Structures are given as structure tokens and as C-alpha cells.
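Why do we care about 3D structure at all? Because function follows from shape, and shape follows, mostly, from sequence. That is the central idea of this module. The next example makes it concrete: a single protein chain, its amino acid sequence, and then its structure expressed as C-alpha cells.
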Amino acid sequence: QVQLVESGGGLVQPGGSLTLACAASGRIRSINAMGWYRQAPGKQRELVATDGGSTNYADSVKGRFTMSRDNAKNTVYLQMNKLKPEDTATYYCNLYGRTWSTYRDTDYWGKGTLVTVSS
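And the structure:
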């Protein structure tokens, strides 16, 4: 009922930049928050940034990553600057909201996009 499609991942050198995008579609009734999470190999999924009115960032990305949101397009972006090898992970888009057939807020996830930071 909700589709989240991420794009923009790829290979980038340390210190480089990359912008991710996530477009949400489907029978969306309301959105409480959208955000980005990431999961590195062998590690748990972790929060990168979330926007539910105000934007919150993980300490590890503060000052380097910027999340923006286009409400008219139900799209969120993640501008990533000064990338480090430890930023290598699959990045997932998250939407927390309701559809026209659900009565409570639910988490929806995209399939992820791989970001590799390596020289």
C-alpha cells in the first residue's frame, strides 16, 4: 500500500559527496515522519536522520549529512558530504504514517540503496 523507492547510492571516494532520494507513493493518508536508516555488514540497522517536524541526526553524521523533505512530492533527500569509509552501508528510507486502510501509524521501509565509500 506504500511504496518507498530509494535512489542515488553508489561508490564514492572518502571525502566525497552523494545525495540519496526517496519517493513515497501509494494510498498514504498521513505521514508522521520520514527518515533514513542504514545497516552496515554485520551490524544492526541504525538511525541516520529523521524528520517529524524537526530533523534529528545521529551524532556520527551531524555536520556532514543534511536531510530535506519535499512534502508536495512525498520525497525526502539525504545530502551526504565528507563521506568516510565507515559510512559504507545500505541506506533505507522509512515512512511512519497511515494509509487509507489502516487505523494506526505503521513503519514502512524501502528496499535500500548501497553506499560504498572507498578509494
